[in-house]
Amino acid sequence: MAETGALAVRMLRPAEALRGLVDAYYIVATEVAVADQLLAGPGNIRFTLAGEWRLTSNGVHIPTPPRAALFGPTDRAATFASTGAAIMLGAGLTPTGWAQLFDVAASTLRNRVCELADVAGDHDTARIDAALAVAPDDAGIAAALDAWLIARAAARRAADPRIAAVHRALLAAPVDVPGFAAAAGVSERTLHRLCLRALGFAPKALLRQKRFLRTLERVRGVLDRPLSGLIDDGYVDQSHFNRDFRYFMGTTPTAYFDSPREIMRRAAVARRTATGRGLQGLHPAAA
């Protein structure tokens, strides 16, 4: 848990039966208006338990369902903000989890948000809404999510096992698409199809995104050291990384690291304690 004064970020562990499908549950609770940046990464299910949260990207407001939403994978940062006191609950999905839980291709919802009921159905969504409404505490919230997700996963056909292989290969940092396909044990054509289905983007774009996230994870906690010694080997030089930083974050490294990052700093600490990784996009793939 990362908690200070009016703002708290808590990570909860999903049930063992959800290993490989959901990496963590998280709760962001604030007593005051707060804003931060969501990073590029995998899809999430999010619930607004109290208050109101707003999402903007490149200065454009993105309508967000008032209660239960499915956030697609993203390749750019977006600003999310509460208008005052508010509570958000989320479940971080792995690529296998996305494919197991939802029929919609991740590419259809990349950089988009939709009503959870649009993809999970009104009945299923009403069930989890009702369970969360009576959950007395964090343990009750986790138990409600566990029961709902386990039941939903069990009622559906198993996801293509090659998706987990693709995810593992991606996290092993292949240098190019042919190497990515070889590591996953599939053809480049199949790799492309599986990436769109479960990760939302083409293989080349995913390699670029993960290279950026690996470097961001390294530099966030050691800002007193020169970046040149921390950037991923896939970058030619620091200027190359700076260009990617602006592409994914919409700002410069200096501006970003000088910003408060009140939620994401706490989330990184809590996630690293719970899962061993500070960023959802770097969470280990299913075995």
TrEMBL record:
Residues 161-259 form the HTH araC/xylS-type domain. The keyword Transcription applies. The keyword DNA-binding applies. SMART domains: HTH_ARAC (SM00342). GO terms for molecular function: DNA-binding transcription factor activity; sequence-specific DNA binding. This is AraC family transcriptional regulator. Transmembrane segments: none annotated. Keywords: DNA-binding, Transcription, Transcription regulation.
